[in-house]
Design a protein that fits this description.
InterPro entries: Cation_efflux_TM, Cation_efflux_TMD_sf, CDF_Transporter. This protein is mainly alpha-helical. It contains nine helices and three strands. The longest helix has 32 residues. The chain starts with 8 loop residues before the first helix and ends in a 17-residue tail after the last strand.
Length: 314
């Protein structure tokens, strides 16, 4: 009987959460037996990810739901909020681990049990690599910021575990060549190196998600092709100006197009709807899922940037 590997976003997120819980519980147990701060850091990372993963599963179901009276602009911002929480929590744990490691260095280091630590690092490296590969396979046919954030996490997790394994293997070697004095400092230096090398990942995840929550326009690689397609599609119309605004909360690209027409060229309702369908189609060929709202006017004040103060803006 074949193994039932995840094939959908929800099953992949469940698999990721279960693996994070497994490695987190294992690491926290081994950190007590080995007194390793590096393993404790790994355990805290994964325990936090498992807890957040429970909320991620719920959000994963919400973001594919249509808007309603309670959330009239949909649930896309929940996706950004979860990713921001993940990034900020990882930053907090990293800062705590860095502080504890520097304190240990200044107070004589921390001797650890190398044998059980090496066994743990082998299991963790294999588990993290497997999880990253499985999620990567699902992401080839599922576009999901939640899933992509988990893939980034497991890639870093695998690299951290491999680095920890390598460092722990140096401890018996140090004893063999008579460098006993450096052994208590290996664990603390390892934590510092891991935190500094991997700090960019939680910063990038948190920064991107927070900018989405602040309604910043998506990066140029996303926005410019959409803008160009809209302008090309509207070329046959006699327009005074076209204002294109877009945000991307999570996976949903939300585009508003305000078209200022020449006053001598009004459109009927039917013509307006045909143009809306044209713009929706041209944007959807570039990015999906997408929501395109198109408004036509002959008065620039209904389209131009506004502070929301009404006629005073004009």
């Amino acid at each position: 009987m074949s193994i039932g590997w995840p094939r959908t976003e929800s099953s992949a997120l469940r698999f990721s959460t279960a693996m994070a819980a497994f490695i987190g519980a294992l690491a926290l147990t081994v950190s007590v037996l080995s007194t390793s701060q590096a393993i404790l850091l790994d355990g805290l990372f994964n325990a936090i990810y498992a807890v957040v993963g429970i909320f991620t599963l719920r959000v994963g179901r919400l973001v594919v739901s249509p808007d309603d009276d309670t959330y009239p602009f949909g649930y896309g911002y929940f996706e950004s909020m979860v990713n921001a929480c993940k990034g900020l929590l990882m930053l907090g744990v990293s800062a705590l681990a860095l502080f504890n490691s520097i304190t240990a260095l200044l107070t004589g280091g921390n001797a650890i049990a190398a044998g059980i630590s090496i066994v743990y690092a082998c299991v963790a490296t294999a588990s993290c690599t497997l999880t990253a590969l499985v999620l990567r396979g699902v992401s080839r046919h599922v576009s999901s910021p939640l899933l992509q954030a988990d893939i980034d996490n497991w890639r870093i997790n695998a690299l951290i575990s491999a680095a920890v394994l390598l460092a722990f293997c140096l401890i018996p070697l140090a004893y063999a060549v008579g460098w006993d004095a450096i052994v208590p400092y290996v664990d603390s230096w390892l934590v510092i190196a891991v935190v500094l090398l991997c700090l960019g990942v939680p910063v990038r995840v948190a920064r991107g998600a927070i900018l989405e929550l602040l309604n910043r326009s998506p990066r140029a690689a996303v926005a410019e092709p959409v803008r160009a397609a809209i302008m090309t599609a509207l070329a046959p119309l006699p327009t005074q100006d076209v204002y294109v605004r877009m945000v991307r909360p999570g996976r949903l690209l939300y585009v508003t197009v305000h078209v200022v027409l020449e006053k001598a060229h009004p459109l009927s309702v039917e013509e307006s709807d045909r143009w809306r369908a044209t713009l929706d189609g041209c944007v959807r060929r570039i990015s999906a899922p997408v929501l395109v709202e198109t408004l036509f006017t002959c008065d620039r004040r209904w389209a131009a940037p506004s502070t929301g103060q009404g006629h005073a803006d004009a």
